[in-house]
Amino acid sequence: MIKDKKYYLGLDYSVLIDEINDDGEVLFTASIRELPGLIVYGDSLNEVYEEIELAKADWIEANLEWGREIEEPFKDSLEEYSGKVTLRMPKTLHRKVKERSEIEGVSLNQTLVQLINDGLFNDMQSSIEQLAKQIENTTKQFSQTIEEKVAAPEQHFYYTLENQSKKTSPYKEQVVLDSGLQFQRIFSGLLEANK
Known about the structure:
By secondary structure, the chain is α+β, with helices and mostly antiparallel strands. Among the domains are: about 5-65; about 85-150. The chain is built from five helices and five strands. It has helices at about 5-10, 45-65, 90-105, 110-150, 180-195, and strands at about 15-20, 25-30, 40, 155-160, 170-175. Strands 1-2-3 form a three-stranded antiparallel β-sheet, sandwiched between helices. Strands 4-5 form a two-stranded antiparallel ribbon. A hairpin with a 7-residue loop joins strand 2 and strand 3 (about 40). Helix 3 packs across helix 4. Keywords: Coiled coil. It comes from Streptococcus danieliae.
């Protein structure tokens, strides 16, 4: 069987969708864990799901062109997991977890499962929050750079002059502080110098 774009698009990849709350604004992210670097953002679940499907097709096509190996979907089968784990821990930690389970009125096993689950969720939430902050900071820097460029009092004019033999003179740059009269003076001076 040829493993081309059509083949990979026919596979059943699981889409991971997360919700991000940023100062009252709700955003959604979608990613596919087998396709590293593929992540999209959207304002709604429908938008983010549509975007991930489009991005998945582009991602697969690009990686096939680059000759990269593409992972097939992970099997979601739980058959290889028994749900039992032998865990070794220091006696002091064992005591703390046992005391916590007694206070909450649940078994030691339930307390350990809850602590592991909370830790995984907090770690994932922290990673998403860090990513959101990085995106926010990059956007702010980009906006600030644009504002500085737009608000800059000087403008750059690039021009090329042709002499009588139709050869192009070297590239020149002129910084113009007053785009009105100053430009006319420079341009008329260049025309006279070229005669």
